[in-house]
Amino acid sequence: MLGGALLACPVTEPGIQEIKVLLPGSDDIWYDIHSSLVYNGGRTLSLPVTLDTVPVFQRGGSVVCRSVGSCSCTAELRQLPLSVTVALNSQGTADGELYLDDGHSFRYRDRKAFCLRRFSMLSGRLLCRPAGEEGTFDCNTVIQSVTILGVKSKPSAVIVHASGAKDISAAFQYMETCCTLTVNSVNLKVAMDWEIQIR
After folding, report:
1. Which of 22, 76, 87, 175 would bridge 180 by S-S if both were Cys, CB 3.0 to 4.6 A apart?
2. Residues near 12 by Cβ (< 8 Å), separated by ≥ 6?
3. Confidence of residue 34 (pLDDT cuts 50, 70, 90)
4. What confidence tens digit (pLDDT) does each residue in 79-93 have?
């Protein structure tokens, strides 16, 4: 487990063509992050693998942020945009947090120079809000795309509302076969309040 949201199952021996993966939590659902297929927890899967494949699953009810692209140092990493993956649980909700600081100093401790944001999905609305009262860190990190796993039907519209701006009807892709909604090019700043509403 990587935190409470991700389960990675690496191939650790040469010649292995199949691994067994126990998905914890009989009440949980898990999404394969590569295929977006959904699995019930509390069971063991047999998965075909190679040395180049690493099965990774995201727990339903979680929100995970990932950097888009690659870099060679921490300073460059802070410049990369993020993608947000929302994995809905059986009640259609999810939440998670994102922490950012300058990546190299003790200002997070001495001056409370950090940004802690909470992402919450409830009733078809994804909200980005402060996770607490502490922390003042100006960052230009943006959310490039949002993917929501477990959306049961194609929405008629996706509306993006950013604090201090007009609502925007966003272009989106819906894949019915894996119940996945993707909204690209949202370019929303992590440090400001915003919401995405699915209609």
Report:
1. 175
2. none
3. very high
4. 899 999 999 999 999
- Mean pLDDT, the chain, integer: 93
Assigned domain for 39 exists:
yes
What pLDDT was estimated at residue 23?
97
Whole-number Å distance between alpha carbons of 89 and 162: 26
* Pairing between β-strand 180-183 and β-strand 188-189 as defined by DSSP bridges: unpaired
Residue 188 neighbours by CB distance under 10 Å? 24
Same domain for 154 and 105: yes
Query: 1 lies in a domain?
Result: no
Buried b or exposed e, range 100-118, using 16+ CB within 10 angstroms: bbeeeeeebeeeebbbbbe
87 and 22: one domain?
Answer: no
Domain hosting residue 109, numbered range: 62-198
